[in-house]
Amino acid sequence: MKLYNTMTRQKGEFTPLNGNTVRIYSCGPTVYGYAHIGNMRTYVFMDFLRRTLQWNGYDLLHAMNITDVGHLVSDSDDGEDKMSKTAREQKKTPWEIAEYYTGVFLRDIERLNIQIPEIVPKATMHIQEMIDFVQGLLDNGYAYETSDGIYYDIKKFKDYGKLSRMNFDENQAGARVEVNSEKRHPADFALWKKADPTHIMQWESPWGMGYPGWHIECSAMGLKYLGEEFDIHTGGVDHIPIHHENEIAQTCGLLGHPAAKWWIHGEFMLVDGGKMSKSLGNTYTLDQLQEKGYSPMVFRYFCLNAHYSQKLNFTFEGMDSAKKSLKNLKNQIKKHKGADGQVSEEELIKLKNEFEEAINDDLNIPKALGAVWNMARYETKSNKIYELIVLCDSILGIDLDKDDVEENGANEVDSDLDREIKEQIALRLEAKKAKNYAEADRIRNELAARGIILTDTKEGTTYSIK
Ligand code: AMP
Ligand code: ZN
Predict the structure, then answer these.
(1) pTM across the whole model
(2) Is residue 125 a contact partner of residue 133, using CB atoms and an 8 Å limit?
């Protein structure tokens, strides 16, 4: 199987470093708010990678962090911590905020049929590992202390900028990163920040009370769970110039060599051809799509249409067309289910090869989807083809074997069921008000067992049917 490596800017044959197990690290979400569909695109790409590796017979050891210690508002190591800011706004503790949004995130990725990685470590549970890492960098001469923290000394690392192929000359870098007078180089970044007494999240360290920089968590947790060297590191393209550059610098500073062999980055999702941003009001969540009548599977189908290395432009016209295509595809597939037409072994292999070659060519999922359409449209209707399509759906992950109500969105769920669920939601709200959390959980779990998933939002509780 071939993959593209951002580090070498080349496509090459993938083989694991060690035996049959592929070790992967993916940068996970910062849980101070709802993840939007752009974030979800990156996790859908991560899922295609997982599934394609599994198709090729590999076992996976995959870690994806949960950033529950808020990183700062700006990249310049200044400004308020995002987690604390949301906590203050919502009058909750940062831990409550993180727990709530982690739950929503995990539920969302499950609704998108994204396999949950084997290890999902929380940053706040690994503060000691981060402190040890920072101490190691100080001991090795890659870091220095200032009055407000411990900083990485990028001039000590000759390969700094290699991944993004940027030149971090003294003069150039100053323009991008605000200058802190005690820093030796404007692009030196915080490994540990000293906290003032009002800072909500802080921990004891050899340098007084403080909290970790954002980049150190991925290096420390990657090392703990995947070892000194692992196969693949994923993330969105926005991480190439700062976050991943810094991860590499940290690991090389501690171990003397990089950890990840392959760096694979997912391109961004745009909205109406432009940037997705809260201020423009175009950062949709999965729930908002569901409210507009587009199920998570329609969104996943929409994502299949662009290669992960290409920008994908989100529009509602595009979603309408994805919804129609998914429905059509399922209708075509149904004609094969249980049909007794004869298709030769040779033909089946040819159809399967077309699909397999596409996924193994750097996850060419749009082409693989085309191959599945060819199977669905195959003139002779045969259950053998149906079985092959179901097998291919172990990569696409769009429930091609399911006849679901959900495909039409929650809007079209039959009204008796809708009424019943809303009654249960009201009972759960009463239970919560009475602080009877056990009863509230019981109601949630009972519905979940029937595939009815509740999501708590600021505007109230919504539901979706899996
Ligand atoms: P964050 O929670 O901001 O760290 O983002 C989580 C993941 O989503 C990261 O891997 C980002 O690179 C990715 N991401 C953020 N915005 C977008 C977008 N518009 N399209 C695709 N991926 C994105
Ligand atoms: Zn990371």
Answers:
(1) 0.85
(2) no
